[in-house]
Amino acid sequence: MKSAFVTVGTTSFEELIAAVTAPESLQVFRSLGYSKLALQIGRGAVAPEPFSTEAFTLEVFRFKDSLAEDLQKADLVISHAGAGTCLETLEKGKPLLVVVNEKLMNNHQLELATQLYRDGHLFYCTCSTLLESLKSMDLSTLKPFPPGQPEKFAAFLDRVIGFE
Fold this sequence. Notes:
Elements: E1 2-7, H1 14-21, H2 23-31, E2 34-40, E3 51-52, E4 57-61, H3 68-73, E5 76-79, H4 83-91, E6 96-99, H5 108-118, E7 123-125, H6 130-136, H7 150-161
Parallel strand pairs: 1-2, 1-5, 2-4, 5-6, 6-7
Antiparallel strand pairs: 3-4
């Protein structure tokens, strides 16, 4: 039973939640062998109705004290490009598809996603390219993120954000 976990962190990202729960997206998840989709929707106004059938389950929640268990159970994580979520997911060795929020000004999320993609650690897309990304990405090509080097990640973030 393969599962995908979608997280928007503590904010809202209605476009992402709407995109992953669109009928076409649910069909793609099923065609890729996923039987469960868990959504952490944060403060968003888009709150899909959870459901469960013999073939597919959709779980929805706003917040938890920790997402560690959800990340650990997931065969694929789809996330906003928040640095904390990216780091936690990559440290757990989970395949990650980052969906960049194009509405954010001075989009450091795009810079972070682009660099981690160049380094081979994740895939990234926008809400409008999510379906194509799900269909075409090859998770076996992702490189493990080097563990236990938070100082390197912090230095990388400083460069991306422009603190150096």
